[in-house]
Amino acid sequence: MTTSPNIITRRDFVAFAAALSLLPSAYSQTSYPSRPVQLNHGFGAGGNADVVSRLLAQKMQDKLGQPVVVEIKSGAGGLIATDFVAKARPDGYNIVMLTGAHTVSAALRRKLPYEPVNDFAFISTVTSFPFVIAVRADHPARNLAELIATARQKPGQVTFTSVGVGSTQHMVGELLGVSAGAKLLHVPYRGGGAPVQAVIGGDVDVLADTLTVAMPHIQSGRLRALAVTSAQPWPSMPEVPVVASVLKGFEIRSWLGIAAPHDTPPNVIEVLGRSARSALDDPGVKTTLTTLGSEAAPSTPAQMKSMVEREIGRWSEVVAKAGIPQQ
């Protein structure tokens, strides 16, 4: 018996229903984003992570066609914001601006509320930059050698700031002291402009922070830059010597990068990554980052994941060799 062309068989109906069931998923993926994306970070307003997050968000939202809203969840050296995103719904609407502190914390802390590699879908690195060692304008140390000499003579009396325990700034100060054979006292702040103000006000001796934060105050004369942590003088401050000129082999450069929760759909990661890399390729963004003491450093998700794994290993070695107690 032949089947009439106007009659739908059971096999046809099953096939049609199966195809129809795929439509909502396909639609939701191709329509991303359909509402604002929240870019979270864990440091204070006005800090490096905040300034770069807002610069990137503005350009990304132009590409995505939806607002990218920067949300500050400060505290615990960035852990609060990172943990929030690690546990967020993996739909691409909550992402995080990670800093070098992400890999430092993995090396320095005995336990984290998330797994630093496997709980994230990495999107792209954003910037690469050194740190600057600076003191207030009227500090008696005129250069890094003098500061180190004072620290050796007065163990535990020369203080340095950071944006929190387990931050990269914290590790810069610790490593500086260990490399110099001197004991520096760590005085952490929640982030943003607080460390700078503490140094300018004379509450703390040494600033170990990004050029983004320190440069305006160096240019105004309220801070004196003693050295940068890059291997070579940094282009935006060529007159400032490198730490390695006093402590041979000393070099620290850090990074910013964006990530989403693990299991975020690959097509969503691709959309976010494409918009981030396009933003970082913008000449205006590159120029702004240069003035902030950073350089654009876009990457693929695989490259960022590999970098994070390497950095965790590197900082773990530093912690062990320097004898820095785990928190």
Question: What does the model show?
Answer:
- With 327 residues, the chain is α/β, with parallel strands linked by helices.
- It has two domains: 37-129 and 253-322, Bordetella uptake gene, domain 1 (D-Maltodextrin-Binding Protein, domain 2, 3-Layer(aba) Sandwich), CATH 3.40.190.150; 130-245, Periplasmic binding protein-like II (D-Maltodextrin-Binding Protein, domain 2).
- The protein has helices spanning 10-30, 48-64, 79-86, 101-108, 144-153, 168-180, 194-200, 211-219, 266-280, 283-291, 301-322, and strands spanning 37-41, 68-72, 94-99, 120-136, 159-162, 185-188, 206-210, 223-228, 253-261, 295-296.
- Strands 1, 2, 3, 4, 7, 8, 9 and 10 form an eight-stranded mixed β-sheet that branches. Strands 5-6 form a two-stranded parallel ribbon.
- Helix 2 crosses helix 9 and helix 4 crosses helix 11.
- The radius of gyration is 24 Å and the shape is globular.
- Residues 1-5 and 16-29 have low confidence and may be disordered.
